[in-house]
Amino acid sequence: MSSEKAPSTSEIFEDASRDKHLQNKLRTVRILDSVQTAITLLGLLMGLTVLGVSANTLSVYDSTKPLPGSFLSLWPQEFNIRPTVALVAGSAIITVLHMVALVFAKVQFLRTTSTVQVSLSFALPFFSLVAALIAVIFFYSVNASDSVDTFLSWTCRWRAIPMWTQPNWGTLCKQSKAGIYLSILLIPVEAGALALSGWLLKERNYVERYVNARKSPALS
């Protein structure tokens, strides 16, 4: 079975023009392919948003953090930025993986190469899911501390205080919440993308086997 040559796209559509069952299967593949592309775009936009708001929070902190020897500081002495760094790292990985997935979806050579197709179809959403899970788990494990402040705890504590220059506590609090909430939402999105990849691969393999079976001399 592994030595069978995968039918070309033209062969599949030629057979589909004479086979109602194959037409229905190809319609299912096209629908699943469109849904997969939509989920990939959604994940990319969410990843970019998390990356943007989290990186901006770090940028504001870097530009307003106290210099060595300063007596007055807007930030606490004991301050943990690692949860936000985790969101930046996780969202950056997810963004890159989704860009690769979109390129993969548009390159016909990769789509028709079985080994590459199987590897990328599962690897990209799987590693995106792992990145989202690690970022969220790390964020909450560190943020649960009562002794050391994080961006979320500190900025949201002082969000009611008006600031006309950076750091604007209210804005930073909203950005911190947006980053973690979108990261949480990315988990079911990536899990759905992984499940959809398995379904789509199953349907594509069925179409290939069906077309090969129709061409088999034993069934002629």
TrEMBL record:
The chain crosses the membrane at residues 37-61, 81-104, 116-142, 178-201. Keywords: Membrane, Transmembrane, Transmembrane helix. This is MARVEL domain-containing protein. The lineage of its organism: Eukaryota, Fungi, Dikarya, Ascomycota, Pezizomycotina.
